[in-house]
Protein backbone atom coordinates (compact mmCIF):
# COMPACT_ATOMS: atom_id res chain seq x y z
CA UNK A 1 0.00 0.00 0.00
CA UNK A 2 1.01 3.64 -0.49
CA UNK A 3 2.06 5.71 2.51
CA UNK A 4 0.71 9.27 2.30
CA UNK A 5 2.90 11.47 4.47
CA UNK A 6 1.33 14.82 5.38
CA UNK A 7 3.88 17.43 6.49
CA UNK A 8 3.08 21.00 7.57
CA UNK A 9 5.97 23.38 6.97
CA UNK A 10 6.64 27.11 7.35
CA UNK A 11 9.28 29.58 6.20
CA UNK A 12 12.19 30.09 8.58
CA UNK A 13 15.99 29.98 8.44
CA UNK A 14 16.22 26.21 8.96
CA UNK A 15 13.34 25.24 6.64
CA UNK A 16 15.42 24.03 3.69
CA UNK A 17 17.75 22.10 6.00
CA UNK A 18 14.77 20.34 7.61
CA UNK A 19 13.16 19.55 4.26
CA UNK A 20 16.47 18.22 2.92
CA UNK A 21 16.88 15.92 5.89
CA UNK A 22 13.42 14.38 5.86
CA UNK A 23 13.08 14.22 2.07
CA UNK A 24 16.30 12.23 1.87
CA UNK A 25 14.87 9.82 4.42
CA UNK A 26 11.66 9.53 2.38
CA UNK A 27 13.66 8.77 -0.79
CA UNK A 28 14.57 5.45 0.80
CA UNK A 29 10.92 4.49 1.38
CA UNK A 30 9.10 2.62 -1.40
CA UNK A 31 5.59 3.78 -2.38
CA UNK A 32 5.64 7.01 -0.43
CA UNK A 33 3.59 10.02 -1.55
CA UNK A 34 4.61 13.23 0.20
CA UNK A 35 1.89 15.83 0.81
CA UNK A 36 3.80 18.94 1.79
CA UNK A 37 1.55 21.74 3.03
CA UNK A 38 3.00 25.21 3.43
CA UNK A 39 1.73 27.51 6.15
CA UNK A 40 1.51 30.45 3.75
CA UNK A 41 -0.85 32.41 1.53
CA UNK A 42 0.99 31.17 -1.58
CA UNK A 43 3.27 28.36 -2.63
CA UNK A 44 6.79 29.73 -2.11
CA UNK A 45 9.43 29.39 -4.81
CA UNK A 46 11.89 27.90 -2.32
CA UNK A 47 9.60 24.96 -1.60
CA UNK A 48 8.37 24.62 -5.22
CA UNK A 49 11.93 24.38 -6.53
CA UNK A 50 12.95 22.13 -3.70
CA UNK A 51 10.16 19.64 -4.42
CA UNK A 52 10.72 19.70 -8.17
CA UNK A 53 14.28 18.48 -7.60
CA UNK A 54 13.52 16.16 -4.70
CA UNK A 55 13.01 12.97 -6.68
CA UNK A 56 9.90 12.19 -4.63
CA UNK A 57 6.28 11.65 -5.62
CA UNK A 58 4.59 14.66 -4.06
CA UNK A 59 1.66 17.03 -3.84
CA UNK A 60 2.38 20.65 -2.96
CA UNK A 61 -0.38 22.44 -1.05
CA UNK A 62 -0.62 25.60 1.02
CA UNK A 63 -2.94 27.23 3.52
CA UNK A 64 -2.10 30.06 5.92
CA UNK A 65 -2.84 29.66 9.60
CA UNK A 66 -5.35 32.42 10.50
CA UNK A 67 -3.58 35.24 12.34
CA UNK A 68 -5.45 34.74 15.61
CA UNK A 69 -4.41 31.08 15.67
CA UNK A 70 -0.79 31.68 14.72
CA UNK A 71 2.03 31.70 17.23
CA UNK A 72 3.57 35.17 17.41
CA UNK A 73 7.25 35.99 17.93
CA UNK A 74 7.98 35.62 21.64
CA UNK A 75 4.96 33.42 22.45
CA UNK A 76 5.81 30.20 24.29
CA UNK A 77 5.66 27.35 21.72
CA UNK A 78 2.93 25.45 23.60
CA UNK A 79 0.44 28.37 23.50
CA UNK A 80 -1.28 27.37 20.26
CA UNK A 81 -1.34 24.18 18.21
CA UNK A 82 0.88 24.26 15.14
CA UNK A 83 0.21 22.73 11.75
CA UNK A 84 -3.48 21.94 12.35
CA UNK A 85 -4.88 23.80 9.32
CA UNK A 86 -2.13 22.38 7.13
CA UNK A 87 -2.82 18.78 8.16
CA UNK A 88 -6.53 19.40 7.53
CA UNK A 89 -5.69 20.71 4.06
CA UNK A 90 -3.78 17.48 3.38
CA UNK A 91 -6.80 15.47 4.54
CA UNK A 92 -9.09 17.57 2.33
CA UNK A 93 -6.91 16.80 -0.68
CA UNK A 94 -6.89 13.06 0.05
CA UNK A 95 -10.68 12.97 0.41
CA UNK A 96 -11.19 14.98 -2.75
CA UNK A 97 -8.87 12.71 -4.71
CA UNK A 98 -10.87 9.72 -3.56
CA UNK A 99 -14.20 11.21 -4.66
CA UNK A 100 -12.61 11.59 -8.09
CA UNK A 101 -11.93 7.88 -7.93
CA UNK A 102 -8.20 8.29 -8.12
CA UNK A 103 -7.48 6.14 -5.09
CA UNK A 104 -8.35 2.53 -5.46
CA UNK A 105 -5.17 1.22 -3.86
CA UNK A 106 -5.04 0.68 -0.10
CA UNK A 107 -3.21 3.46 1.72
CA UNK A 108 -1.88 4.66 5.04
CA UNK A 109 -1.82 8.27 6.26
CA UNK A 110 1.02 9.51 8.49
CA UNK A 111 1.52 13.03 9.87
CA UNK A 112 5.25 13.74 9.80
CA UNK A 113 6.44 17.09 11.12
CA UNK A 114 9.39 18.53 9.23
CA UNK A 115 11.76 18.56 12.21
CA UNK A 116 11.49 15.01 13.60
CA UNK A 117 13.84 12.10 12.90
CA UNK A 118 12.37 9.02 11.21
CA UNK A 119 13.81 5.52 10.99
CA UNK A 120 13.19 3.69 7.71
CA UNK A 121 11.83 0.74 9.69
CA UNK A 122 9.00 2.92 10.98
CA UNK A 123 7.46 3.08 7.50
CA UNK A 124 7.45 -0.69 7.10
CA UNK A 125 5.83 -1.02 10.54
CA UNK A 126 2.97 1.31 9.55
CA UNK A 127 2.46 0.00 6.04
CA UNK A 128 0.08 -2.77 7.17
CA UNK A 129 -2.18 -0.45 9.21
CA UNK A 130 -5.83 -1.55 9.13
CA UNK A 131 -7.34 1.06 11.46
CA UNK A 132 -4.87 3.09 13.55
CA UNK A 133 -1.42 1.81 14.41
CA UNK A 134 0.66 3.17 17.27
CA UNK A 135 4.27 3.02 18.53
CA UNK A 136 6.65 4.80 20.92
CA UNK A 137 8.05 8.28 20.28
CA UNK A 138 11.48 9.15 21.64
CA UNK A 139 12.52 12.42 23.30
CA UNK A 140 9.02 13.80 23.74
CA UNK A 141 6.95 15.29 26.54
CA UNK A 142 10.00 15.85 28.73
CA UNK A 143 10.63 12.09 28.77
CA UNK A 144 13.12 9.64 27.24
CA UNK A 145 10.11 8.27 25.40
CA UNK A 146 6.34 8.02 25.56
CA UNK A 147 4.52 4.90 24.47
CA UNK A 148 1.35 2.88 24.53
CA UNK A 149 1.60 0.10 27.12
CA UNK A 150 0.67 -3.26 25.57
CA UNK A 151 -0.87 -6.11 27.56
CA UNK A 152 -1.99 -9.32 25.90
CA UNK A 153 -1.37 -7.81 22.48
CA UNK A 154 -3.67 -4.81 23.10
CA UNK A 155 -3.04 -1.24 24.21
CA UNK A 156 -4.02 -1.13 27.89
CA UNK A 157 -2.86 2.43 28.76
CA UNK A 158 -0.22 4.98 27.90
CA UNK A 159 3.18 5.70 29.40
CA UNK A 160 3.24 9.50 29.49
CA UNK A 161 4.39 12.06 32.00
CA UNK A 162 1.55 14.46 31.47
CA UNK A 163 -2.27 14.39 31.49
CA UNK A 164 -2.64 10.64 31.02
CA UNK A 165 -6.43 11.16 31.04
CA UNK A 166 -6.42 12.62 27.53
CA UNK A 167 -8.42 10.39 25.15
CA UNK A 168 -5.27 9.66 23.13
CA UNK A 169 -2.13 10.88 24.91
CA UNK A 170 0.03 10.23 21.81
CA UNK A 171 2.31 12.62 19.96
CA UNK A 172 1.52 13.31 16.29
CA UNK A 173 4.55 11.19 15.33
CA UNK A 174 3.24 8.16 17.22
CA UNK A 175 0.38 6.94 15.03
CA UNK A 176 -0.75 6.26 11.45
CA UNK A 177 -4.27 5.84 10.11
CA UNK A 178 -5.49 3.70 7.25
CA UNK A 179 -6.72 5.72 4.28
CA UNK A 180 -9.90 3.66 4.37
CA UNK A 181 -10.66 4.92 7.91
CA UNK A 182 -9.86 8.53 6.93
CA UNK A 183 -12.30 8.27 4.03
CA UNK A 184 -14.94 6.51 6.15
CA UNK A 185 -14.84 9.47 8.61
CA UNK A 186 -15.13 12.50 6.35
CA UNK A 187 -15.67 14.86 9.31
CA UNK A 188 -12.54 13.87 11.27
CA UNK A 189 -10.07 16.72 11.41
CA UNK A 190 -7.62 18.51 13.70
CA UNK A 191 -9.18 21.15 15.94
CA UNK A 192 -6.96 24.24 15.70
CA UNK A 193 -8.60 25.51 18.89
CA UNK A 194 -7.92 22.35 20.88
CA UNK A 195 -6.32 22.97 24.28
CA UNK A 196 -2.63 22.12 24.65
CA UNK A 197 -2.06 18.38 24.22
CA UNK A 198 -5.49 17.63 22.76
CA UNK A 199 -4.72 18.14 19.05
CA UNK A 200 -4.06 14.46 18.34
CA UNK A 201 -7.13 13.42 20.38
CA UNK A 202 -9.35 15.86 18.46
CA UNK A 203 -8.60 13.91 15.30
CA UNK A 204 -8.59 10.34 16.62
CA UNK A 205 -11.65 10.67 18.88
CA UNK A 206 -14.70 9.21 17.21
CA UNK A 207 -12.59 7.40 14.64
CA UNK A 208 -11.11 4.64 16.77
CA UNK A 209 -11.21 3.27 20.32
CA UNK A 210 -8.22 2.41 22.48
CA UNK A 211 -9.04 -1.30 22.14
CA UNK A 212 -8.81 -1.06 18.34
CA UNK A 213 -5.30 0.46 18.26
CA UNK A 214 -2.72 -1.74 16.54
CA UNK A 215 0.57 -1.78 18.47
CA UNK A 216 3.64 -1.83 16.20
CA UNK A 217 7.42 -1.68 16.68
CA UNK A 218 7.76 -4.92 18.60
CA UNK A 219 4.61 -4.34 20.69
CA UNK A 220 5.74 -0.77 21.35
CA UNK A 221 9.12 -1.86 22.70
CA UNK A 222 11.19 -0.02 20.06
CA UNK A 223 11.73 3.67 19.44
CA UNK A 224 11.76 4.31 15.66
CA UNK A 225 10.90 8.02 15.63
CA UNK A 226 12.33 10.87 17.65
CA UNK A 227 10.70 14.20 18.44
CA UNK A 228 13.86 16.16 17.69
CA UNK A 229 13.71 19.96 17.60
CA UNK A 230 16.15 22.16 15.77
CA UNK A 231 17.72 25.07 17.57
CA UNK A 232 16.93 28.47 16.12
CA UNK A 233 20.21 29.78 14.65
CA UNK A 234 21.48 33.09 15.99
CA UNK A 235 22.22 35.75 13.39
CA UNK A 236 24.31 38.10 15.52
CA UNK A 237 27.26 38.32 13.12
CA UNK A 238 25.02 38.46 10.07
CA UNK A 239 23.07 41.37 11.56
CA UNK A 240 26.28 43.21 12.46
CA UNK A 241 27.78 42.71 8.98
CA UNK A 242 24.54 43.74 7.30
CA UNK A 243 24.69 47.08 9.11
CA UNK A 244 28.07 47.62 7.44
CA UNK A 245 26.71 46.55 4.07
CA UNK A 246 28.75 43.33 4.25
CA UNK A 247 25.94 40.80 4.85
CA UNK A 248 25.93 37.37 3.15
CA UNK A 249 24.82 37.53 -0.51
CA UNK A 250 20.97 37.51 -0.41
CA UNK A 251 21.03 35.83 -3.83
CA UNK A 252 22.31 32.63 -2.25
CA UNK A 253 19.46 30.44 -0.98
CA UNK A 254 20.03 28.85 2.42
C1 LIG B 1 4.49 19.07 19.01
C2 LIG B 1 3.92 17.94 18.17
O1 LIG B 1 4.95 17.01 17.87
C3 LIG B 1 3.33 18.50 16.89
O2 LIG B 1 2.92 17.46 16.05
C4 LIG B 1 2.17 19.39 17.28
O3 LIG B 1 1.60 19.98 16.11
C5 LIG B 1 2.69 20.48 18.18
O4 LIG B 1 3.42 19.97 19.30
C6 LIG B 1 1.49 21.27 18.68
O5 LIG B 1 1.20 21.22 19.87
O6 LIG B 1 0.85 21.89 17.86
P1 LIG B 1 6.50 20.80 18.22
O7 LIG B 1 7.87 20.33 17.95
O8 LIG B 1 6.28 21.60 19.47
O9 LIG B 1 5.52 19.58 18.18
O10 LIG B 1 5.91 21.64 16.97
P2 LIG B 1 6.65 22.13 15.64
O11 LIG B 1 7.58 21.08 15.15
O12 LIG B 1 7.19 23.49 15.87
O13 LIG B 1 5.41 22.25 14.62
C7 LIG B 1 4.74 21.11 14.13
C8 LIG B 1 4.63 21.18 12.60
O14 LIG B 1 3.90 22.34 12.22
C9 LIG B 1 5.99 21.26 11.90
O15 LIG B 1 5.98 20.44 10.76
C10 LIG B 1 6.12 22.74 11.54
O16 LIG B 1 6.88 22.96 10.36
C11 LIG B 1 4.66 23.13 11.34
N1 LIG B 1 4.40 24.58 11.67
C12 LIG B 1 4.89 25.13 12.82
C13 LIG B 1 3.66 25.34 10.79
O17 LIG B 1 3.22 24.86 9.74
N2 LIG B 1 3.42 26.67 11.10
C14 LIG B 1 3.91 27.26 12.24
O18 LIG B 1 3.66 28.48 12.45
C15 LIG B 1 4.65 26.46 13.12
MN1 LIG C 1 8.64 19.63 16.17
CATH homology group: Spore Coat Polysaccharide Biosynthesis Protein SpsA, Chain A
User: How do the strands line up in the largest sheet?
Assistant: 3-2-1-4-10-6-11
Oligomer: single chain
Task: Report the C-alpha radius of gyration, rounded.
Answer: 19 Å
Q: How many DSSP H or I helices?
A: 8
- What proportion strand? 15-25%
- CATH class equals Alpha Beta
Major sheet summary line: 7 strands, mixed
- Enter the CATH topology name: Spore Coat Polysaccharide Biosynthesis Protein SpsA, Chain A
Total beta strand runs? 12
Order of helices and strands: EHEHEHEEHEEEEEHHEHEH
Span between termini: 35 Å
Mean pLDDT: 95
Number of domains: 1
Helix percent reads 25-40%
Overall 3D geometry?
Answer: globular
- Tell me what the CATH architecture is: Alpha-Beta Complex
- Parts with pLDDT < 50 across at least 5 consecutive residues: none
Bound molecules: uridine-5'-diphosphate-glucuronic acid, manganese (II) ion
Protein name: Galactosylgalactosylxylosylprotein 3-beta-glucuronosyltransferase
GO cellular component, one term: Golgi membrane
Cofactor: Mn(2+)
Family: Belongs to the glycosyltransferase 43 family.
Amino acid sequence: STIYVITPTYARLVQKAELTRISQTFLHVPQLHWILVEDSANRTSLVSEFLAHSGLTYTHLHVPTPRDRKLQEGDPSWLKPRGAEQRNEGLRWLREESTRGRQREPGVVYFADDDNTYSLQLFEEMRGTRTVSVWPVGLVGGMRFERPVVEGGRVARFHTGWRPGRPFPIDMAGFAVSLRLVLANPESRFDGNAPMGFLESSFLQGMVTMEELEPKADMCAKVLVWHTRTEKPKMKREDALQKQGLGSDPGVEV
